[in-house]
Specification:
The protein has 2 domains: about 80 residues, no CATH class; about 60 residues. It is about 55% helix and about 10% strand. The relative contact order is 0.13. By secondary structure, the protein is α+β, with helices and mostly antiparallel strands. The protein contains 8 helices and 4 strands; from the N terminus they run αααααβαβββαα. It has a 4-stranded mixed sheet, with no helix packed on it.
Length: about 160
């Protein structure tokens, strides 16, 4: 199972994406195993289908009617054990930027399986806030303004005179 898990999680950076990919994989494998591999003729090559194809035939061949549910249940159980790094951002990131951020964080945190939970919080104005293992750090513009409220107010007062 570890090899299968490694292959799935290598390019999956958010907890939401991991859960979605496991659901897609379950649907795909169930369809393949229990409908004799029959696919809809007009099924387009979606991002999900491209991802499944990127796993390779060797990966898909490891699943059969006898082990499909136990292997997928084991992966879903592993997913529930993940302790994500929650990142609060003032803006939404495009998927390619999430991949870059996820890769950078895994390298710099030294965590091979670290998953992100990205949340949108426009009240931060800019910057970000992080929560990991119950510890919260706020690196947002909002926090900087709050920490320096008196200086900011004094600065504005000089322009009002």
């Amino acid at each position: 199972m570890n090899q299968l898990w490694d292959q799935i999680i290598t390019n999956t950076y958010t907890l939401k994406s991991l859960k979605n990919r496991l659901r897609i994989l379950r649907d795909y494998l169930t369809k393949q195993q229990f409908t004799n591999g029959v696919q809809d003729q007009d099924e387009k090559l979606t991002d999900e289908a491209q991802w499944i194809n990127s796993l390779g035939k060797d990966f898909l061949a490891k699943f059969n009617q006898h082990n499909i549910y136990s292997l997928l249940d084991e992966m879903e159980s592993e997913t529930s054990k993940q302790e994500p790094l929650t990142i609060f951002l003032a803006f939404e990131l495009p998927n390619e930027e999430i991949s870059k951020l996820g890769s950078w964080i895994r390298v710099n945190f030294g965590q091979k399986y670290l998953m992100l939970d990205i949340k949108y919080d426009p009240s931060l104005i800019g910057g970000c806030a992080l929560t990991w293992k119950g510890i919260y750090h706020d690196y947002s513009v909002k926090k900087k303004i709050e920490d320096n409220k008196q200086q900011v107010l004094e600065s504005f007062k000089t322009y009002l005179r």
